[in-house]
């Protein structure tokens, strides 16, 4: 019994000495690797603009002009009133004093040629679909679409009806979907803010410059 204890003690001492001898050889490579990975992460940060590190004056002018144009567009959105069902009541609320969408630069327009946003609020029927497309085609570019409510998103309660289009995205391209039946005015206002964020990140001029 005593011999086994002594043998185990000698083994533990040998393992400890071996670990001390190899400690200096193991740690430096791992430390160097971690520092190299950290430096690589610092150098590959996502830039705000494709021309973040501009080398010419033309690149700088194009990038900053995009920022200026997008700033003007996102703060002067003119939606077209296109209420089709009960969602239109909630759409009216964001223009009332309680929510006051005017403070974000959003002002309703009655003519499609004066608008750059159309809010499809409600159930889109097969007979109304050509009118929606005609109004959308009359709007000037760039233009956006917000699908408001379950009926506009995918038919909603009338999804299996023979006379209802199962989603307005089958007629016009949609940029923002607002869920709900009907969605609240806060939800629609949040959708407008998401659209402003999308407009802010547009880079049309820089893409043309690269071509």
Automatic annotation (TrEMBL):
Top-level lineage group: Eukaryota
First and last residue of the signal peptide: none
InterPro entries according to UniProt: NADH_UbQ_OxRdtase-like_20kDa, NADH_UQ_OxRdtase_20Kd_su
Pfam families given in the database record: Oxidored_q6
Span of domain NADH:ubiquinone oxidoreductase-like 20kDa subunit: 86-193
Entry keywords, A to Z: 4Fe-4S, Iron, Iron-sulfur, Metal-binding, NAD
Region (Disordered): 30-50
GO biological process: aerobic respiration; electron transport coupled proton transport; mitochondrial respiratory chain complex I assembly
Gene Ontology annotations for the cellular component aspect, listed alphabetically: mitochondrion; respiratory chain complex I
Xref: HAMAP family: NDH1_NuoB (MF_01356)
Subunit: Complex I is composed of 45 different subunits This is a component of the iron-sulfur (IP) fragment of the enzyme.
Name of protein: Probable NADH dehydrogenase [ubiquinone] iron-sulfur protein 7, mitochondrial
Species for this entry: Polyplax serrata
Gene it is expressed from: NDUF7_2
